[in-house]
Amino acid sequence: MCPIYQKRDLIVFTIGVFGIITDDKDRVLLCHRRDFDLWNLPGGGVEAGESPWAALVREIEEETGLKAVPVHLSGVYSKTDKNEIVLSFFCQVTGGTIQLTDEADQIEYFHLDRIPSNTSPKQVERIKDYFADKTRTYYKVQTGPSAIDLVNVWKSQNEIP
């Protein structure tokens, strides 16, 4: 049989989408998670049968109460150690109002130099990429522990359940 037709092992990737939303003072919107002491961009995972941009619109509304639309793909980030692809989009708010949700207990805008230290390091990189050149789409590999991995290490070191 021709090699091109041989059955290959199926590799499953998780796709994450995150929205970069700014206000008129060029501050970025971050959500503080209820389940972990972490700040992150609004977003999450793409569900089966869902497009990345539909997932992004859904996640932003679920986490913030805002209606938003993706305007520009600002980054494609491959987490090769986790078989995960993350897409970050610059988004424009089209309606809704900021509301605390089951997922976020705080939602605030931050200047780039005032992003909280307990923000996911990989998300900080994505935010900095966007602000470095708002017209560019970045393509990067991101490795190392996730923010949740870091929280779990911190919890275990401090004996927190």
Explained architecture:
With 161 residues, the protein is α/β, with parallel strands linked by helices. The protein has a single domain (11-157), classed as Nucleoside Triphosphate Pyrophosphohydrolase. The protein has a five-stranded mixed beta sheet with strand order 4-1-6-5-8, with helices on both faces. A three-stranded antiparallel beta sheet has the order 3-2-7, covered by helices on one side. The chain has three helices and eight strands. Strand 2 and strand 3 form a beta hairpin.
Keywords:
single chain; alpha/beta; 161 residues; three-stranded antiparallel β-sheet; 22% helix; 3 helices; five-stranded mixed β-sheet; Nucleoside Triphosphate Pyrophosphohydrolase
Roughly what is the average pLDDT, rounded to an integer?
90
Distance between the termini: 55 Å
What number of domains?
1
How many H/I helices? 3
State the helical fraction: 10-25%
Query: Which structural category do the helix and sheet elements fall into?
Result: alpha/beta
Largest β-sheet summary: 5 strands, mixed
Shape: globular
Per CATH, which architecture? Alpha-Beta Complex
